[in-house]
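Field notebook, page 181. I keep forgetting to write these up properly, so this time I am using the form the group agreed on. The chain and the ligand, inosinic acid, are recorded exactly as supplied. Prediction of the bound pose follows.
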Amino acid sequence: MKKTWGTVLVTAEQIQRRLRTLGRRITRDFSGEDLVLVAVLKGSFVFLGDLIRQIKLPLAVDFVEISSYGAGTVTSRKPRMIKDATLRLSGRNVLIVDDILDSGHTLRFMLRHLKKKSPKRIKTCVLLEKKDRREVAVEPDYAGFAVGNHFVVGYGLDYQDGMRHLPFIAALEPKHLRGGR
Ligand code: IMP
Ligand code: MG
């Protein structure tokens, strides 16, 4: 496979270790209850698959598909819902799962949207966050790793729909970007 990514920022082993910690925290925080994890497609599907196996509670999963990007690497600031959740969420504990918190527009949109469904409690979990890029005030309840101001790929995250299958998180280098920033 031709290498089209740059430096590895988080290894597969580091991800799995961190997920065990996050899973323990979520298990403790919702102890005695059950959960619906609502994952944001497509980027979070790998993270979701590993995370659920670290949560020792009865749980269900559902998916929302949101598109906030064109083909580039800069958010449009207008998340658009392509597919809504289908499970009943009213009166249930909801955990939103997303791959990365960047400007915050997607997570704020998700919180507003799912709160209208009257969940009992709603919390958020992201694998990665870029702390310096927030445009709207939103903080995750659970976060895996902070990454700098890079465009990152792998472990579900894509660049132009490629590289989601890399088992680690890597930064794209400018020479790999077509157009973009
Ligand atoms: P936000 O709305 O700007 O917070 O962006 C969140 C969404 O943009 C995430 O769910 C990702 O799908 C995507 N995204 C943001 N930064 C990156 C990145 O570095 N690599 C890949 N996707 C990203
Ligand atoms: Mg996404």
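OBSERVATIONS:
- The mean pLDDT is 93.
- The two ends are 25 Å apart (CA to CA).
FOLLOW-UP: compare against the apo run.
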